[in-house]
Write a structure and sequence with these properties.
Largest sheet: 9 strands, mixed
Shape: elongated
Number of helices: 11
Number of strands: 15
Radius of gyration: 21 Å
Helix content: 25-40%
Oligomer: single chain
Length: 386
């Protein structure tokens, strides 16, 4: 079984009618009068060992869209970069009345560079009526949360295009000002407090998994119809994800997805810091918390709600129970204000997900990774929580 692991898309079956170059505000092959107010972009970076899976996702996305009766309620675009065929990136517009059309063909480029991400997203999200449009984007590729590949390079947080990756802060800068409502990741480990904080000024809602995602990917057969509405419900997307993975058997019955309202993330970070700092400061724990979302030898990503409970207990034991409870209740209220909605199977392969809140956070554990804590201090979440 292949997994979109964090330690490291149909070569088009459709006839390419033409390649059209277009600027950010000029889409000559599309009749803008027929466009819906909701635009959806699936951004597939599969110029790596996920190329076959990227192809399969594109095939399923296309079939699901054309099987959707109300498909013209949303404009659907797919950016596909893999190493099959000629290996060149293509931006498709799925015309609801005909078939997928090549909106723009590219020469070889780094699909995880900030300039490319911004150009593609700007092209797509210039559609619709800006005053009332809704924009949703799914980023599909490898993912590593915020974790740096090593101390000498930038992080490998999202994507892999011929070994190139993008840091989440650079990715957030590339997306700012594009009026994104729903930011979704079909990539491993991106459902974290740190990712949420980095994109708090980019989107309204984050949808991501705190664990790895199997190469079976998002269940696009059901999720694409759910997105083809004027105002898609991200909780429904989470439900459909859980329903799909719960229907599988054996080790494939492994999935968790979470939706987070990003407007409350700064308050969540502040209340988390007031709870964690008197309990642990920036020191390393001597034991690992009960629920960790990664399967690596050195665990890094823990359930934020369970860890908050551990901080409360430690403060109560060492200082004052009343203060501990007050700090914990402030955090819990901030957590609720983020409208954190998660659904999951009982396990993700070997990880017991019972009681999982669906949002991870980095906590320095007993095994220290060289340079990791120094890098972590540059993240928005750390700044807000200290």
């Amino acid at each position: 079984m292949n997994i979109k692991r964090f330690t490291f898309a149909i070569c088009s079956l459709l006839t390419v009618l033409c390649f059209i170059g277009c600027g950010n505000d000029d889409l000559p092959s599309i009749d803008k009068r027929q466009l819906a107010d909701h635009s959806v972009l699936v951004y597939i970076v599969a110029d790596n060992n996920l190329s076959d899976s990227g192809d399969e996702s594109f095939r399923i996305i296309s079939k699901a869209y054309y099987n959707t009766p109300n498909r013209d309620d949303a404009n659907l675009f797919v950016y596909l970069d893999n190493h099959e065929g000629d290996g060149l990136p293509v931006l498709y517009y799925l015309d609801p009345k005909t078939e997928p059309t090549v909106l723009k063909g590219y020469t070889e480029q780094n699909s995880v560079s900030p300039s490319v991400i911004r150009e593609v997203c700007s092209t797509v999200f210039s559609t619709g009526q800006r005053a009332k449009s809704v924009n949703s984007v799914i980023f599909w590729s490898h993912g590593t949360n915020w974790y740096p590949a090593n101390t000498k390079e930038r992080t490998r947080s999202f994507g892999e295009d011929n070994n190139a990756k993008i840091d989440i802060s650079d990715m957030a800068d590339a997306l700012k000002g594009l009026s994104i409502n729903n930011l979704m990741f079909d990539a491993c480990l991106m459902g974290s407090a740190e990712v949420a904080a980095e994109f708090a000024d980019v989107a309204d809602v984050l949808v991501a998994s705190p664990t790895e995602i199997l190469t079976t990917s998002y269940p696009y057969r059901t999720i694409i119809p759910a997105l083809c509405t004027s105002k898609p419900d991200m909780h429904k997307v989470v439900d459909l994800y859980q329903q799909y993975y719960s229907s599988l058997s054996d080790i494939y019955q492994s999935g968790i997805l979470t939706a987070v309202n990003l407007k409350g993330i700064r308050r969540l970070a502040e209340t988390f810091g007031k709870l964690k700092n008197p309990a642990y400061g920036d020191g390393h724990m001597t034991t690992v918390p009960e629920l960790c979302y990664d399967r690596e030898r050195v665990h890094l990503f823990f359930d934020i709600l369970q860890f908050a409970g551990r901080c409360r207990d430690k403060i109560a034991e060492e200082s004052d129970a009343g203060t501990a409870d007050a700090l914990y209740q402030d955090f819990v209220q901030a957590f609720r204000d983020c409208d954190i909605y998660t659904r999951h199977t009982d396990k993700f392969i070997t990880i017991n997900l019972k009681g999982a809140c669906g949002l991870s956070v980095y906590i320095p554990g007993p095994a220290i990774v060289a340079g990791l804590d120094d890098f972590y201090k540059y993240l928005t979440w750390y700044q807000w929580s200290h």
